[in-house]
Amino acid sequence: MRSSNQSAGATASSTTSQEFGERICCCHLRWSWKASWRGCRMSMADLLNAEDIKKAVGAFAATDSFDHKRFFQMLGLKKKSPDDVRKVFHILDKDKSGFIEEEELGFILKGFSSDARDLTAKETKMLLAAGDKDGDGKIGAEEFSSLVAEC
Ligand SMILES: [Ca+2]
After folding, report:
1. What domain count does the chain have?
2. How high is the pLDDT of residue 126?
3. 14 C-alpha vs ligand 1 centroid, how far in Å?
4. What is the pLDDT of residue 141?
5. How many other CB atoms are there within 10 angstroms of residue 126's CB atom?
6. How far is the CA of 102 from the centre of ligand 1 (A)?
7. Does one domain contain both 52 and 115?
8. Which terminal residue of the chain has fewer beta carbons within 10 Å of its beta carbon, N or C?
9. Co-location of 69 and 129 in the same domain
10. Does residue 84 share a domain with residue 26?
């Protein structure tokens, strides 16, 4: 049950793995509570095909192999309605800040499958660079939709 922290040395973040773990836990609980409170229990499994999710997450199991274009293609995200893409965005925005921040981007694979790996710092930076059009260091709903449309 130990989580891998092999990439800890490579991370530019000042947050330790342990703090990260606690934060995910809190955010997740808070999000679940908020989501139920709003009457919105949408999950990735409601939006996307379970087999597609499994294949897409499995394809990038190797460290530093993540390619967001191929990942989104494999998920069939581009074929989804703008509304569904927005729902996926909101699931990935765990703290409901209206943005997918760098930390949340690192957990993008886990957003689709809870046993998936975290992105490495390098992969996270590349994904952020691809999606962050206005350079504010995070990905907004519009930016996420454009990122999906570019696939
Ligand atoms: Ca957020």
Report:
1. 2
2. 98
3. 18
4. 98
5. 17
6. 9
7. yes
8. N
9. yes
10. no
- Two tokens, residue 89: 């965005």
Domain that holds residue 103: 44-149
- Listed as ranges, residues in the chain with pLDDT below 70 are 1-41
pLDDT of residue 74: 97
Helix locations, the chain, DSSP H: 17-37, 44-47, 50-59, 68-75, 82-92, 102-106, 108-112, 121-131, 141-149
Shared domain for 79 and 121, answered yes or no, is yes
What's the gap in Å between 67 CA and the centre of ligand 1? 21
In this structure, the answer to whether residues 97 and 135 fall within a common structural domain is yes
Asked if 105 and 124 touch (Cβ cutoff 8 Å), the reply is yes
Instruction: Quote the pLDDT of residue 151.
Output: 84
User: What pLDDT sits at residue 42?
Assistant: 82
- Which pLDDT score, from 0 to 100, does residue 115 have? 95
CA 14/CA 16 separation, integer angstroms: 6
Q: What CATH code is carried by the domain that includes residue 142?
A: 1.10.238.10
Amino acid at 62: A
Cα→Cα distances 110→44, 60, 131, Å: 11, 12, 18
